[in-house]
Amino acid sequence: MRTKVFQEVYEWIKSLLIAGILAFLIHTFLFAVVIVSGSSMEPTLHNNERLIMNKIIYKTHPPERGDIVVFHATESEDYIKRVIGLPGETIEYKNDQLYVNGKPIDEPYLAQERQEWQSKGLLLTKDFGPITVPADTVFVLGDNRNNSTDSRVIGPIPMSKVVGKANIIIWPFSRISILQH
Protein backbone atom coordinates (compact mmCIF):
# COMPACT_ATOMS: atom_id res chain seq x y z
CA MET A 1 0.00 0.00 0.00
CA ARG A 2 2.73 2.45 0.99
CA THR A 3 4.70 1.66 -2.19
CA LYS A 4 1.62 2.34 -4.32
CA VAL A 5 1.10 5.76 -2.70
CA PHE A 6 4.79 6.57 -3.10
CA GLN A 7 4.64 5.53 -6.78
CA GLU A 8 1.57 7.75 -7.32
CA VAL A 9 3.23 10.77 -5.68
CA TYR A 10 6.41 10.14 -7.67
CA GLU A 11 4.43 10.07 -10.96
CA TRP A 12 2.66 13.34 -10.09
CA ILE A 13 5.92 15.08 -9.21
CA LYS A 14 7.57 13.79 -12.37
CA SER A 15 4.62 14.98 -14.52
CA LEU A 16 4.60 18.43 -12.90
CA LEU A 17 8.36 18.76 -13.28
CA ILE A 18 8.21 17.85 -16.99
CA ALA A 19 5.31 20.26 -17.53
CA GLY A 20 7.24 23.03 -15.76
CA ILE A 21 10.37 22.45 -17.84
CA LEU A 22 8.35 22.41 -21.07
CA ALA A 23 6.53 25.61 -20.09
CA PHE A 24 9.85 27.28 -19.28
CA LEU A 25 11.41 26.23 -22.61
CA ILE A 26 8.36 27.31 -24.64
CA HIS A 27 8.22 30.69 -22.88
CA THR A 28 11.96 31.26 -23.15
CA PHE A 29 12.52 30.26 -26.76
CA LEU A 30 9.22 30.10 -28.68
CA PHE A 31 6.27 32.12 -27.39
CA ALA A 32 5.48 34.61 -24.64
CA VAL A 33 2.50 36.57 -23.41
CA VAL A 34 2.98 40.34 -23.61
CA ILE A 35 0.78 43.09 -22.21
CA VAL A 36 -0.05 46.22 -24.21
CA SER A 37 0.87 49.32 -22.23
CA GLY A 38 -0.70 52.57 -23.36
CA SER A 39 -2.72 53.75 -26.33
CA SER A 40 -0.06 54.08 -29.06
CA MET A 41 -1.44 51.14 -31.08
CA GLU A 42 -5.14 52.06 -30.92
CA PRO A 43 -7.48 51.22 -32.54
CA THR A 44 -5.68 47.92 -33.33
CA LEU A 45 -4.52 47.17 -29.78
CA HIS A 46 -5.76 48.59 -26.49
CA ASN A 47 -4.16 49.20 -23.10
CA ASN A 48 -3.82 46.04 -20.95
CA GLU A 49 -4.69 43.60 -23.74
CA ARG A 50 -2.71 40.37 -23.63
CA LEU A 51 -1.02 39.09 -26.78
CA ILE A 52 0.86 35.97 -27.75
CA MET A 53 4.22 36.88 -29.24
CA ASN A 54 6.17 34.53 -31.52
CA LYS A 55 9.83 34.80 -30.48
CA ILE A 56 11.32 32.52 -33.11
CA ILE A 57 9.76 33.81 -36.34
CA TYR A 58 12.47 36.38 -37.10
CA LYS A 59 15.19 33.77 -36.67
CA THR A 60 13.90 32.14 -39.87
CA HIS A 61 12.88 35.15 -41.98
CA PRO A 62 12.90 38.96 -41.75
CA PRO A 63 9.93 41.11 -40.69
CA GLU A 64 7.40 42.19 -43.29
CA ARG A 65 5.74 45.56 -43.64
CA GLY A 66 2.63 45.58 -41.46
CA ASP A 67 3.95 43.12 -38.86
CA ILE A 68 3.28 44.15 -35.27
CA VAL A 69 6.56 43.72 -33.42
CA VAL A 70 7.71 43.83 -29.82
CA PHE A 71 11.14 45.38 -29.24
CA HIS A 72 13.37 46.54 -26.41
CA ALA A 73 12.94 50.33 -26.41
CA THR A 74 14.98 50.72 -23.22
CA GLU A 75 16.66 48.27 -20.86
CA SER A 76 13.49 48.03 -18.80
CA GLU A 77 10.69 48.68 -21.31
CA ASP A 78 9.41 46.96 -24.44
CA TYR A 79 7.30 48.71 -27.07
CA ILE A 80 4.76 47.27 -29.49
CA LYS A 81 4.61 48.97 -32.91
CA ARG A 82 3.91 48.25 -36.58
CA VAL A 83 6.71 47.77 -39.14
CA ILE A 84 6.40 50.45 -41.82
CA GLY A 85 9.84 50.41 -43.43
CA LEU A 86 12.36 47.67 -44.15
CA PRO A 87 16.16 47.93 -44.57
CA GLY A 88 17.17 49.98 -47.61
CA GLU A 89 13.71 51.45 -48.20
CA THR A 90 13.00 55.17 -48.29
CA ILE A 91 9.97 56.10 -46.17
CA GLU A 92 7.99 59.30 -46.53
CA TYR A 93 4.61 60.62 -45.45
CA LYS A 94 2.93 63.36 -47.49
CA ASN A 95 -0.69 64.47 -47.09
CA ASP A 96 -1.51 61.46 -44.89
CA GLN A 97 -0.18 58.98 -47.47
CA LEU A 98 2.69 56.53 -46.85
CA TYR A 99 5.23 56.32 -49.66
CA VAL A 100 7.87 53.61 -49.82
CA ASN A 101 10.54 54.20 -52.45
CA GLY A 102 8.23 56.81 -53.98
CA LYS A 103 5.23 54.46 -54.34
CA PRO A 104 2.01 54.93 -52.33
CA ILE A 105 1.31 52.13 -49.85
CA ASP A 106 -2.17 51.24 -48.61
CA GLU A 107 -2.64 50.96 -44.84
CA PRO A 108 -6.11 49.41 -44.44
CA TYR A 109 -5.72 49.12 -40.65
CA LEU A 110 -5.82 52.96 -40.50
CA ALA A 111 -8.80 53.53 -42.82
CA GLN A 112 -11.42 54.31 -40.16
CA GLU A 113 -9.13 56.47 -38.03
CA ARG A 114 -7.85 58.36 -41.08
CA GLN A 115 -11.42 59.07 -42.20
CA GLU A 116 -12.34 60.43 -38.75
CA TRP A 117 -9.31 62.75 -38.68
CA GLN A 118 -9.88 63.92 -42.24
CA SER A 119 -13.55 64.70 -41.46
CA LYS A 120 -12.15 67.20 -38.92
CA GLY A 121 -9.78 68.63 -41.51
CA LEU A 122 -6.75 67.07 -39.81
CA LEU A 123 -4.05 64.60 -40.82
CA LEU A 124 -3.75 61.27 -38.99
CA THR A 125 -0.03 61.14 -39.76
CA LYS A 126 1.92 64.36 -40.05
CA ASP A 127 4.32 64.70 -42.98
CA PHE A 128 7.89 63.46 -42.48
CA GLY A 129 10.78 62.13 -44.47
CA PRO A 130 12.14 61.02 -46.74
CA ILE A 131 14.07 58.70 -44.44
CA THR A 132 16.17 55.79 -45.67
CA VAL A 133 16.00 52.78 -43.34
CA PRO A 134 19.54 51.58 -42.49
CA ALA A 135 20.65 47.97 -42.89
CA ASP A 136 19.65 45.59 -40.08
CA THR A 137 16.91 47.93 -38.80
CA VAL A 138 13.18 48.45 -39.23
CA PHE A 139 11.16 51.67 -39.16
CA VAL A 140 8.12 51.34 -36.88
CA LEU A 141 5.07 53.49 -36.15
CA GLY A 142 2.22 53.19 -33.70
CA ASP A 143 -1.25 53.01 -35.26
CA ASN A 144 -2.31 55.92 -33.03
CA ARG A 145 -0.05 58.19 -35.06
CA ASN A 146 -0.63 61.34 -33.01
CA ASN A 147 0.11 59.63 -29.69
CA SER A 148 3.04 57.29 -30.30
CA THR A 149 6.71 57.30 -29.42
CA ASP A 150 8.04 55.44 -32.44
CA SER A 151 10.78 55.62 -35.09
CA ARG A 152 9.91 59.24 -35.79
CA VAL A 153 11.23 59.97 -32.28
CA ILE A 154 13.59 57.11 -31.38
CA GLY A 155 14.85 56.29 -34.88
CA PRO A 156 14.93 52.99 -36.75
CA ILE A 157 14.97 49.90 -34.53
CA PRO A 158 17.97 47.54 -34.75
CA MET A 159 16.88 43.98 -35.49
CA SER A 160 18.95 42.89 -32.48
CA LYS A 161 16.37 44.67 -30.28
CA VAL A 162 13.32 43.07 -31.92
CA VAL A 163 12.02 40.38 -29.56
CA GLY A 164 9.26 38.93 -31.74
CA LYS A 165 6.01 39.29 -33.63
CA ALA A 166 2.67 39.79 -31.90
CA ASN A 167 0.31 37.19 -33.38
CA ILE A 168 -2.86 36.79 -31.34
CA ILE A 169 -4.93 38.87 -28.91
CA ILE A 170 -5.88 36.49 -26.08
CA TRP A 171 -7.37 38.87 -23.52
CA PRO A 172 -9.98 40.17 -23.03
CA PHE A 173 -11.97 37.25 -24.39
CA SER A 174 -14.28 39.61 -26.32
CA ARG A 175 -11.27 40.68 -28.44
CA ILE A 176 -9.65 37.29 -29.13
CA SER A 177 -8.35 37.44 -32.70
CA ILE A 178 -5.39 36.82 -34.97
CA LEU A 179 -3.51 40.01 -35.77
CA GLN A 180 -3.42 40.77 -39.50
CA HIS A 181 -1.71 43.51 -41.46
Automatic annotation (TrEMBL):
Highest taxon, organism lineage: Bacteria
Key word Endoplasmic reticulum present: no
Subcellular location field: Cell membrane; Membrane
Any one Gene Ontology BP term: signal peptide processing
Keyword Transmembrane helix tagged: yes
UniProt cross-references to Pfam families, sorted A to Z: Peptidase_S26
Domain spans labelled Peptidase S26: 10-171
Catalytic activity: Cleavage of hydrophobic, N-terminal signal or leader sequences from secreted and periplasmic proteins
Enzyme Commission no: 3.4.21.89
Record field: transmembrane: 12-36
Keywords from the UniProt entry: Cell membrane, Hydrolase, Membrane, Protease, Transmembrane, Transmembrane helix
Gene Ontology CC terms: plasma membrane
Gene3D superfamilies: Umud Fragment, subunit A
Family designation: Belongs to the peptidase S26 family.
NCBIfam families referenced in this protein's UniProt entry, alphabetically: sigpep_I_bact (TIGR02227)
Protein name per the record: Signal peptidase I
Species assigned in the record: Tepidibacillus fermentans
Lineage summary: Bacteria, Bacillati, Bacillota, Bacilli, Bacillales
